[in-house]
Design a protein that fits this description.
Largest sheet: 7 strands, mixed
Number of strands: 11
Shape: globular
Helix content: under 10%
Structural class: mainly beta
Distance between the termini: 40 Å
Order of helices and strands: EEEEEEEEEEE
């Protein structure tokens, strides 16, 4: 069983930056795909970015060139650096770990970007 705990959310002005951190209670394995999703009120949860053990990553088109995902398996942690934030980035951000066919989710951290 894996537990994920997110931190680093908050209120920031447009153009600002935040760094989200997701700490896993158990060990992260090379087979695990780590990711960040977000959900705004009235909208479906969407993928923001994901990263594999080798470092290859995917991003939503809306965050490319602004957000960077990284992981540190030695610390069981994944990060999301968010720059040039926009009001439309406002959402609850969830950490995700996909291990084979099982998804694990954190409770989320709120990010609010004011205009």
């Amino acid at each position: 069983q894996v537990q994920l705990v997110e931190s680093g959310g908050g209120l920031v002005q447009a153009g600002g930056s935040l760094r989200l951190t997701c700490a896993a209670s158990g060990r992260i394995f090379n087979i695990d795909v780590m990711g960040w999703y977000r959900q705004a009120p009235g909208k479906q949860r969407e993928l923001v970015a994901k990263i594999r053990s080798g470092g290859s990553s995917n991003y939503a088109d809306s965050v490319k060139d602004r957000f960077t995902i990284s992981r540190d398996n030695t610390k069981n942690t994944v990060y999301l650096q968010m720059n040039s934030l926009k009001p439309e980035d406002t959402a609850r951000y969830y950490c995700n770990l996909l291990r084979q066919w099982t998804n694990y989710w954190g409770q989320g951290t709120q990010v609010t970007v004011s205009s």
